[in-house]
Write a structure and sequence with these properties.
heterodimer; A: Alpha-Beta Plaits; two-stranded antiparallel ribbon; 12 helices; 16 strands; B: Immunoglobulin-like; 14-stranded mixed β-sheet; 1 helix; 14 strands
Chain lengths: 343, 219
């Protein structure tokens, strides 16, 4: 089936402040329905460097691996983090609580399962004054060649021709979880109450009404753009194809993700003798291991591209700083919602 | 070709006629007076359900007894399982399951979920489900729980003890709708059985072990 249009998204990692408003927006919209969804964050924000959510997902592989039979399935507690409840009813007077020495206690006890979707938030790496980290917001990438779709033996996973959004048909799904194993980004989740797999739907009911997906709409930092891949007038087209400042996350997974990232600039490192060097604090090596254009680029090509993107960003910033105009900087500032959504 | 150990097993099962009511109790006298047939499950389908591939020499034996009283038919299945798996409430947990397949409208159907013009009627039991599901299939990947509530009229008994699963499945012999095969006295039906081991074996979907087509004669 031909895909008539493909929706794409760009995140500017220079603007993400890790506030998780996007994750909360998605959670209240979609994954707040039953106990089986409590551990799910279809949209999550990870600190990098870090182990990610689910834990260590980058090392778990996906359906295009040669040894697909050995791909593990995460565990709800150890991999995603045990969602706990608080005893508000006992503690808050407004809830009727009246205990003499009220203590807010989570249950189940999180120390039994020490993990959460933002477990190593702000931990980062490096030694002061050269410590570093950045935030990586992630949704399902609605890939052009989705591993989840390929993995399902019942065609319960399908890709819409009108916008390329990848969905799971809840009536066809039998909870086999080959899709969960298959996604190399681990962005398909399993609902143990409904006994089916579920994932980000790119807020398709909103897209059908030409509104932005909720994570993007609620973003406090205005860090993301959405549009259709073939729309040459859209800002995502300009960011990806004209200015070429946006890269795919792990293109070597070969699923051709449709969510792109503008890599984060960072302040220079200090040398041992307290002189500023020309190496950025977030090592380019680390970024080159994460981001690239296509699956056939090698490491050196990715390094070159990241440096090139940094040069473009710095250059355009300098133009504006000295009073000039820059189309790229105007797009990146995104003063209004119309600047970010061209659907 | 690996050898399948069919010794002591059969492909013919008779549904014995018992007068009067039969209950979903393994100690019901109907079961005591009914001889059992040992069936060997030894065929595997590729884990994604895509191809039928003989893999290895594995044999699982199922003890089968079938009785009917003219109104309802009862299928009694027993097999060894060292650890029961009864829950699916984490990503890596799969429950033990068992299914029986009978061609829905034709005499024979392809054993792998039938074909478009030769559909199959499957009764699927899984340890975590409230009751067995009535399923219709028209080929690999097409199985659907039949949507009419009338056809979801299957009752069951299940128990695991001392390394043995005992499952009794019953439904009326008359079909509730076009989504169930009609079971009639003096008729012979093809019957295939399938078993899934849950737990760390993580068998589900096409990743299962099945019998050949058997012959079920209803007395």
């Amino acid at each position: 089936m031909a895909i008539m249009r493909q929706i794409q998204m760009v995140f500017d990692l220079n603007k993400c402040i890790g506030c998780h408003t996007c994750a909360m927006a998605c959670k209240t919209m979609w994954t707040d329905r039953d106990a089986g969804q409590m551990h799910m964050y279809w949209m999550n924000v990870e600190t990098r460097p870090g182990t990610g959510y689910p834990k260590d997902w980058e090392n778990q592989g996906g359906w295009f691996n040669a040894d697909r039979n050995t791909i593990p399935l995460p565990h709800i507690h150890e991999g995603y983090g045990a969602p706990w409840e608080y005893n508000y009813k006992e503690v808050l007077k407004t809830e009727g609580g009246d205990t003499p020495a009220p203590k807010l206690i989570p249950s189940p006890d999180p120390s039994e399962y020490p993990y959460a979707s933002n477990w190593d938030e702000d931990v980062g790496k490096g030694t002061f004054p050269n410590s570093y980290y950045f935030y990586l917001p992630r949704i399902c990438n609605h890939c052009t060649d989705p591993a989840c779709l390929e993995a399902c033996p019942r065609q319960a996973v399908y890709k819409r021709s009108e916008d390329g959004i990848v969905l799971i048909d809840p009536k066809r799904c039998r909870g086999y979880r080959y899709c969960v194993k298959g996604c190399p980004y681990k962005k398909v989740y399993y609902n143990p109450e409904e006994k089916i797999s579920q994932k980000c739907v790119f807020c398709y009911p909103r897209i059908e009404e030409r509104k932005g997906n909720f994570c993007s709409t609620q973003c406090a930092g205005r860090i993301s753009w959405i549009g259709y891949a073939s729309d040459t007038k859209s800002n995502i087209y300009k960011l990806i194809n004209t200015w070429k400042v946006a890269l795919r996350l792990h293109p070597e997974y070969k699923t051709e993700p449709n969510v792109f990232y503008i890599p984060p600039l960072s302040p220079p490192t200090y040398s041992f003798t307290s002189k500023l060097t020309d190496s950025p604090r977030i090592p380019i090596d680390m970024l080159a291991k994460m981001f690239g254009d296509t699956h056939d680029q090698n490491y050196d090509q990715r390094v070159t591209r990241i440096k090139q993107i940094f040069d473009i960003l710095q250059n355009e910033r300098n133009i504006v700083a000295s009073g000039g105009n820059s189309e790229l900087i105007d797009i990146l500032i995104s003063r209004s919602e119309a600047d970010r959504f061209q659907i | 070709m690996p050898d399948h150990d069919l010794s002591g097993s059969s492909r013919a099962i008779t549904a014995v006629y018992i007068q009067g009511p039969v209950t979903l109790d393994p100690l019901d006298p109907a079961w005591i007076q009914t001889p059992e047939t040992a069936i060997t499950l030894s065929r595997r389908i590729h884990e994604t359900g895509a191809k039928m591939v003989d893999m290895g020499n594995e044999n699982r034996r199922i003890k089968v007894k079938v009785v009917h009283n003219g109104t309802d038919i009862f299928f009694f299945y027993q097999w060894d399982e060292s650890t029961p798996n009864v829950t699916v409430n984490d990503y890596s947990l799969f429950a033990d399951a068992f299914a029986m397949e009978i061609p829905l409208i034709t005499e024979v159907s392809p054993i792998w979920m039938g074909a478009k013009d030769k559909p199959v009627n499957i009764i699927y039991w899984r340890a975590d489900l409230a009751r067995p599901e009535n399923i219709v299939g028209g080929g690999i990947g097409t199985t659907q729980i039949s949507s009419d509530t009338e056809s979801q009229n299957i009752r069951h008994y299940q128990n695991w003890a001392n390394g043995v699963w005992t499952v009794i499945i019953t439904r009326p012999m008359t079909t509730a709708s076009h989504n169930q095969v009609s079971l009639v006295r003096s008729a012979t039906y093809r019957l295939a059985l399938a078993n899934w081991k849950g737990g760390s074996d993580a068998e589900r979907g096409g990743n299962k072990i099945i019998s050949d087509w058997l012959y079920l004669f209803i007395k």
